[in-house]
Amino acid sequence: MTAVVTGLGVTAPNGLGIDDYWAATLRGESGIGRIARFDASPYPVTLAGEVPGFVAEEHLPNRLVPQTDRTTQLTLTATEWALNDAAVVPGDLPEFGMGVVTAATAGGFEFGHRELEKMWRHGNRHVSAYQSIAWFYAVDTGQISIRHGMRGPSGVLVGEQAGGLDAVAQARRQIRKGSDLIVSGGVDGAHCSWGLVAQWAGGRLTESADPDRAFLPFDADASGYVSGEGGAILVIEDAESARRRGMTGSYGEIAGCAATFDPPPGSAREPGLRRAIELALADAGTSATDVDVVFADAAGDPDLDRVEADAITAVFGPGGVPVTAPKTMTGRLYGGGGPLDLATALLSIRDGVLPPTVNVAVAPAYEIDLVRGTPRRATVDVALVLARGRGGFNSAVVLRAT
Amino acid sequence: MTDGAERRVVITGMGVMAPGGIGVKEFWSLLTEGRTATRRITFFDPSPFRSQVAAEIDFDPVALGLGQQEIRRMDRAIQLGVVAAREAMAGSGLDVADLDPTRTGVSLGSALGATIGLENEYRVVSDDGRLALVDHEYAVPHLFDYLVPSSFAAELAWLFGAEGPATLVSTGCTSGIDSVGYACDLIREGSADVMITGATDAPISPISMAAFDAIKATTPRNDDPAGASRPFDLGRKGFVLGEGAAIFVLEEREHARRRGAHIHAEVAGYASRCNAFHMTGLRPDGREMAEAIRVALDEARMDAGQVGYINAHGSGTKQNDRHETAAFKLSLGQHAYEVPVSSIKSMVGHSLGAIGSIEIAASVLAIEEGIVPPTANLHEPDPECDLDYTPLVAREQRTDVVLTVGSGFGGFQSAMVLAAHDRLSR
To answer: What is the pLDDT of residue B426?
Structure first.
């Protein structure tokens, strides 16, 4: 059974919709800038990858807007685009044939911030009737399923930045168990002052105020990451079932998936990323020499960059494979990050071009061939996407041209 | 992976932290005696709230073995989870030193993550809502781990030295079934031999109470806290919020047999469906839950007639009780009228994502101990709910197969089939 991607929807800081996003990415155009959605001047962190120009009312029914957090609004918009891209007519599929598996990290956090403020400033009776459904982690899966009549197996996974790849792996698992179509991926973010402070407290956000020198994975000046909002929704289908409903092609196959967890802090054992890569390649039935590009996790933290560069060189050899991190143009999107990298990798396969990493000069200590500054022409048959979540989560997905 | 052989999944360790039931033994006594652990809220002054009752755990983390740094770092929900996990590990007879770390994974469920931790920290950084732009100078370092509850799964992975796949499953009120179902899938497909799984939630906080008040989901029956949770009873007025955790050690059956482990039960089948209907509303015909039940039985290769006990979702809202009654009839046919059903939420309340796992623990105990736990407070059944809900008193009955179900916000409907591992040939 082959799970293929037949539709993509992207809401990213540097582009709404796959065309705008892909064009901006190939131009090396970053969506990272000074935080505009609230006054960030009191904070040590002033940069983020915010999705500009998104007006929920232009994309969603009016009644849904007050019931949902901005991330859910971005999710539902990306989902609609992805289903249109895949030319899905929900009525054409069996009643329980379509499901939804998304990744979350903070739920509807900005919505929750507003309600917490009402609760403690004005009292419990001021809390919205929508609080109980707008801020929990399952909101996006629930809302997608309702909006598009998807009644098959569904799920929600949380694994910080690794969760988005785990969700797609679970979507493939459901396809293998007999579902026709699973909407998967994730669109994420927590862009209010409470969300920013909670992220900053984790100690890994860069405090640089220069958008071009802030998020610099694998650079000697790496000082942490910039966080962003957005992500991608993928329509994943059983290839045979997609053919039956008249789809003649696809973006590519979800060929291999794996997840591992790092040894406990202080352990002398090797971190789990290399093993995740090897397991995903084995699962795809492919070897390291077949991989045409690696989309790196690109933590932007010297220790974590070291671990990733070591894992990549251990599997592919020094400079053995082109590596790229277009997330240098969006920031890290948590549950949305892995899915956006998958979407980007699938567009690479489609167009035969590797998108660049911006602003980074690779530190000599890392023996990786980073695609820098401008896109690189290349035939892409196999792409490897990596993601790591805070605490020790490692996930890898292998995509293959169909 | 064992060559070509079917990989089956068994439970070899269990730990429970429930209201009125710290540890498996105390939990089972509460259930079989039909006692209730619901009471007037003591965690904060509940008087401004519509619903003022909850099922709280009298939890002393120091007495239960948590260190000072663990207590500082962990939200209450994962504190409960860690204590339950240690009980599960001890009972499983597994020695962490003997586990293959790369073949051991974690799948933990939680609906709301670190609600209490987040609300407490919000109160500080916002000075009780006074500051629209919160003050970062007052943020604690582990605030990020409250923000993203996969930190809970990391805690369990560290505890067991697990280096296989790890995740947090968060499908609202079915999280505790879905996390165990996910763990089963990983073992069956060969991604792990041992999974630490289960669920935890500690949602009893002002913001959760206010949120459920706003949609009148929780009961206003404040004058009778012990009788406040009344699934299937005509006098029910909503659910009673609870807290708790149940953690299991799941193993591939041959892995368990090779080390001579005590096997509590087999996880024989699991399925989930969505109603695609409404974020909080249920379609009255129970169609999607019935479908989940049918698929779970099919996966277990069992007939409806083999189900010896149904551990119901039984949240004590009118719409739920009728919805699942319809679902049982739709999926089990005439057998629905013959099989005992009960809701332990009548005793331990509704701990959102955790309860599904706590109910799996109760289901396993029903098989092992030959006792069906009762539905407490069921004095006057809703005439629309016309099945055998095992009112008030536990029943001795040999049970080989239990069906446990869950239903939740977002439209999630999940079903799991647990079976005596040695009494059935399938």
So the answer is: 65
Whether B185 has its CB under 8 Å from any CB of chain A: the answer is yes
Taking only the tens place, the pLDDT of each residue in B280-292 is 989 889 999 999 9
State the Cα–Cα distance between residues A353 and A342, nearest whole angstrom.
Answer: 14
Residue B356 to residue B180: CA distance in whole angstroms: 9
At residue A25, φ and ψ (nearest 5 deg) are: -65, -45
Whether the predicted pLDDT of B262 surpasses 80: yes
B323, B289 in Cβ contact below 8 A?
yes
Question: Does the beta-carbon distance from B288 to A129 stay under 8 Å?
Answer: no
Query: Which of B255, B264, B323, B350 does the annotation list as catalytic?
Result: B350
Residue environment code for B229-246, b if the CB has 16+ CB neighbours within 10 A, otherwise e: bbbbbebbbbbbbbbbbb
The two tokens of residue B275 are: 């109603």
Nearest to A106 by CA among A259, A263, A258, A227: A227
Q: Which three-class secondary structure state does DSSP give residue B262?
A: coil
Residue pair B20/B37 in contact by the 8 Å Cβ criterion: yes
Taking a C-beta distance cutoff of 8 angstroms, is the pair A316, A291 a contact? Answer: yes
Is any Cβ of chain A less than 8 angstroms from the Cβ of B273? yes
Q: Tokens 């220069």 sit at which residue?
A: A210
Give the angle B299-B110-A385 at the CA atoms, nearest 5°: 75
Is B313 marked active-site? yes
Contacts with A251 (C-beta within 8 Å, 6 or more apart), sequence order: A4, A5, A6, A8, A346, A347, A349, A350, A402
Tell me if chain A has a CB within 8 Å of the CB of B148: yes
Q: First CA to last CA across chain A, in angstroms?
A: 13
ipTM above 0.90, yes or no: yes
Question: Which tens digits make up the pLDDT trace of B106-131?
Answer: 999 999 999 999 999 999 999 999 99
Query: Is there a contact between B396 and B371 (Cβ–Cβ < 8 Å)?
Result: yes
The Cα B261–Cα B74 span in angstroms is 31
The answer to whether A391 and B154 have CB atoms below 8 angstroms apart is yes
- Tell me the residue type at B9: V
pTM as predicted = 0.98
What is the spatial distance between Cα B31 and Cα A177, in angstroms, rounded to a whole number? 36
**E strands within B312-379?**
341-342, 371-372
Tens digits of residue pLDDT in A98-128:
999 999 999 999 999 999 999 999 999 999 9
Which of A163, A54, A49 is CA-nearest to residue A104?
A163
- Read off the amino acid at residue A75: T
DSSP state at residue A262: P
Q: Which residues of chain A have pLDDT under 70?
A: none
Q: Among B74, B36, B44, B38, which Cα is nearest to B56's?
A: B38
Is the C-alpha dihedral spanning A241, A243, A247, A251 positive or negative? positive
Is A224 in a helix, a strand, or coil? coil
How many whole angstroms separate alpha carbon B380 and alpha carbon B17? 30
